[in-house]
Amino acid sequence: MTYILGLNAHHADSSACLVKDGVLVAAAEEERFRRIKHWAGFPSEAVHYCLTEAGIRLADVDMVAINQDAGANLWKKVGYLAARRPDLSLILDRIRNKRERVGIAAEFARAFPGEGLRAEIREIEHHLAHLGSAFLVSPFEEAVAVSVDGFGDFASAAWGRGRGNRVEAEDKIYFPHSLGIFYQALTQYLGFPNYGDEYKLMGLAPYGEPRFMADMRQIMTLEQDGSFRLNLDYFRHHREKIAYEWENGEPVFSDLYSPRLAELLGSARKTGDELTQRHKDIARSVQGMYEEAFFHLLNRLHERYRLDSLALAGGCAMNSVANGKIYRNTPFKRLYVQSAAGDAGGAIGAAFVVWAGMQGGRTSPRSQGKGEKPIGEGAVTNRVVMNHAYWGPQFSDAEIGALLSVKNAEIAAQACVVNRLENEAALCSQAARAIADGKVVGWFQGRMEWGPRALGNRSILADPRRADMKDILNLKIKRRESFRPFAPSILREAVAEWFEVDDDVPFMMQVYPIREAKHVLIPAVTHVDGSGRLQTVTRDTNSRYYALIEAFRELTNVPMVLNTSFNENEPVVCNPEEALDCFLRTKMDVLVMGNWVVERE
């Protein structure tokens, strides 16, 4: 029996997972326990959870796999420093960051006092971990694996062929050129400075026209081999120290763009300033340039590998709009994007790369241990396919009931009533009726989702038929920008009838056009460009959520609900107490936790 603990540590979206004999047991992001978005640092609470879920102690772990390798791409680093001679403070800062990351044994000692760590620690190059997180849990026997993000281990993109239990990074794009940096810098320029704000630019883009494409092509150029290059005159990251700090665990960046960008596009927008049509047009152009570079790379990779399946990871794989256009703009016919495609998912990638290496699959040179087969040798083994995201903590009906009893006075003070329904059909029918009546329902069930999306276990649900539902949600709970869309969760068998695609999209990682005739029927989940960020729901992977949507279809003839994350400007709720607190401090109408129903009178 072999336990491998995978970590994304000392980086934004820090996380942990546990793999037992090649099977994922648990996975969670540290932010859910710390209650700070994108928490960076050592994921001690997530590790505690994973070990508890498996019923083991730290001493039982055989291997710790980390999704970064301080020695990776060393010659590229040396060559860059010799040729460019950047600011000495930039070099010292990067060395200091690496030193902070390598003290993993000391971190375990602090987090688990008195418990010995006997596990071997293995460093897995950042993009190899991403490729592993995409391909090694995918449904494909063979596929092109691609990782695209900001930077990790001096590279911004990598790709290769995945086959059986093997995956490798055959080629890369190196610092300072990065599609992720391009998108992040322009996001900052448009007045969205927080880490992870790129989804705001993506939501804003459909409101504009691509009037600035000529300018975008000055900022980035495409190479014949499929790669891309930044015009470094418009950026700072390659020559100056970019402040990257963890304020109370939350990553904070200084501006990545240089003053030259304002000379090209005009003055940068300040946070809180009005969003003008010019800003919207720039957003549309940024998204257009991203897609142009992204599809340029994918098309060259299809020509090279002649494979029709694509496994995609890295922070840029969170660009669900571009993901939804892959079938239209490339020859790829099958796509898999894991639910935690960004850096959090590197924990799973690192763990499965190590496991594959132990079985004779391909691993990175620095992760090859004594007595293992050389890289590339060994037979292909069967892999576990990750077809759902429910790998986090869960809570029993008894635990939820005890909480409701303790909080009874607070609940009664808000004129709420509490009931318990043993019958699942009755529970789903009551919740579906509340949604159909225009109520907003908090839905807390089973194991918490892995990754940034709420996928039916930590969700807020509403009626997609109501044109005013976006405003209702923002008024009652979310308080977010009006231009950001809400997503539909739809029964898998109904997808082709409502969307211009017929595919499995379990993790809400692709945006697809909604059939034009359906726009008027589901305005709350139809974005301004007629699209929707799709989540397909099957009975096999989430039977209760499926039953709820099915009950809603019986009432309305609409086989979907509006699904947004269960939170209020905070990480998605993890435990019942956080769910109840969110319900009580907002104007949510109904809360369903397990078999318990809390409803405002």
State the helicity in percent bands. 25-40%
Beta-sheet strand percentage? 15-25%
Please report the total strand number as a whole number. 24
Uncertain residue ranges:
362-381
The helix/strand class is alpha+beta
Radius of gyration: 24 Å
Give the termini distance in whole angstroms.
53 Å
Shape: globular
Strand order of the largest sheet: 16-24-23-17-18-22-19-21-20
Sum this structure up briefly.
This protein has 601 residues and is of the alpha+beta class. It has 21 helices and 24 strands.
What does this structure look like?
51% of the residues are buried. The model is unreliable at 362-381 (pLDDT under 50). The strands form five sheets. Strands 16-24-23-17-18-22-19-21-20 form a nine-stranded mixed sheet, sandwiched between helices. Strands 6, 7, 8, 9, 14 and 15 form a six-stranded mixed sheet that branches. The protein has 601 residues and is of the alpha+beta class. It is globular, with a radius of gyration of 24 Å. Helix content is 35%, strand content 20%. The chain contains 21 helices and 24 strands. A hairpin with a 2-residue loop joins strand 12 and strand 13 (250-253). Helix 6 crosses helix 14 and helix 17 (424-436) crosses helix 20.
